[in-house]
Amino acid sequence: MANQPTPLMPHATASWLVDNTALSFTQIADFCGLHILEVQAMADDLAGAKYTGRDPVHSGELTHEEIERGQADANYSLKMQKAPVDVSRTKGPRYTPVSKRQDKPDGIAWILRNHSEISDAQIGRLIGTTRDTINAIRERSHWNIVNIQPKDPVTLGLCSQRELDAAVAKAAKRVAATEPAAEGDEPIEATVPATPRDDKQELIAQLRREREDAAKAAVRAAQEAEAEAWLEAKRAAEGNGEAGQG
Prior knowledge:
Elements: H1 10-20, H2 25-32, H3 36-43, H4 56-59, H5 64-72, H6 98-101, H7 104-114, H8 120-128, H9 131-138, H10 153-156, H11 161-178, H12 196-245
Helix pairs in contact: 1-2, 2-3, 7-9, 11-12
């Protein structure tokens, strides 16, 4: 039914109903909000192995009586007995699309190299990673350390420039507040410290310069790689030509 909510886990619920009831594919598809071909694939064992069945009776979404009504009348539309509770995520690591997860180590390495003042907790929130991964990259014990290349996380799309600037400013402020005075130095009351705003602007300017330098270096590296590939292809073509003449 279009006006009622679907089960919390539609595919797993459909898989359970296919295996444990005599409901029609249309009834199951309508109740779970799926296309009938998806349900057909589960029944034909083309997709069922991908899902662990979820009992909607146990979760309260259906009752045995409701299932029996559907089995007795193929035109009967199953009614949701108890709508699933929405699961909201308020804490935890930032979600990163699968296509960008492989770039996380490069982003972490860049931050560790260029902004060591940023804490592990900040990196974890910024990139969406764990302390273990950060330590492994810092200690060069990461399983893929040989292939990790420090890259700006903003360029990689792992965080925004605003978020990175805020993390840098916050870390700099924390370091300045906790850094002890040198031994023997007396505090000078008359000294006027730089304002946090000035420090932040300087850090942002420095960060932009570093990012521009990194982008230029990446372009140069790409051009060199392209030229090298072209040269190798040319040599290979010439070698094949000589071999053919021989």
